[in-house]
TrEMBL record:
GO molecular function, one term: triose-phosphate isomerase activity
UniProt entry tagged with the keyword Thylakoid: no
EC number(s) stated in the UniProt entry for this protein: 5.3.1.1
Biological processes per GO annotation: gluconeogenesis; glyceraldehyde-3-phosphate biosynthetic process; glycerol catabolic process; glycolytic process
InterPro entries, A to Z: Aldolase_TIM, TIM_sf, TrioseP_Isoase_bac/euk, Triosephosphate_isomerase, Triosephosphate_isomerase_AS
UniProt name for this protein: triose-phosphate isomerase
Protein's organism: hydrothermal vent metagenome
Gene Ontology CC: cytosol
Keyword vocabulary terms for this entry: Cytoplasm, Gluconeogenesis, Glycolysis, Isomerase
Pathway involvement of the protein, from the record: Carbohydrate degradation; glycolysis; D-glyceraldehyde 3-phosphate from glycerone phosphate: step 1/1
Amino acid sequence: MKRRPLIAGNWKMHLDSVKARQLAQDLIPAAAARAGNCDVMIAPSPTLLPVVSEAIKDSVIILGAQNVCWATQGAFTGETSPAMLLELGCRMAIIGHSERRHIFAEDDRLINKRLSGALEHGLIPILCLGETLEARQQDQTFKVLEGQLRSALINISIKNPAKLIIAYEPVWAIGTGQTATTEQAQEVHVFLRQLIGDIFDKTIASGIRILYGGSVKPETMAALMSQEDIDGVLVGGAALDAESFSKIINYS
């Protein structure tokens, strides 16, 4: 099954409203140029969602959120419901990012709840998985990833592979300047696709997009995207620069 590439930018806690609007507008030409064969998503900070939503409303760029609550409403201080995100124009939501796991101690149970809530309300989750440097050095990569994936998908049913996206983000490569080799990334993506086949079925596994995230740069894109099981990227720092992110979008 041919999978449509997704280039996703996670802006994290950066930019003000003026810079966010300008960056979003600057990315529109690159996204339009690739509209026939590639999806582009940007995920600003929550307070910037209205500004960015307005800036890209007539473009092909997809608006995403950096996190999502499982509940529709209620006493959940600091959280944002799926309905609120949908109202702002969000179609995707990042869930389980390594910074949420390690800085804010979000565990597999909470990530499962967020994933379930997103799916229930029609948001497409980008489920992030990844091992630490210590786990990789101890040859525990596959064990860690299997635990994260199986835990996140407890009681989750997927009938349409387009409704779920997986992002492999080796923790040791995020914000460090280090990048997994194309062979390392492909090896993990193959493992994850096989595991998805075990959890669901081979049809779902062959259709689900699996992204790579970890210090992605314009110069690493062509090699990453040449791999059969790498269906796009989740970009951090380089997504904050219009020129760099446009080059990533326009990889050859």
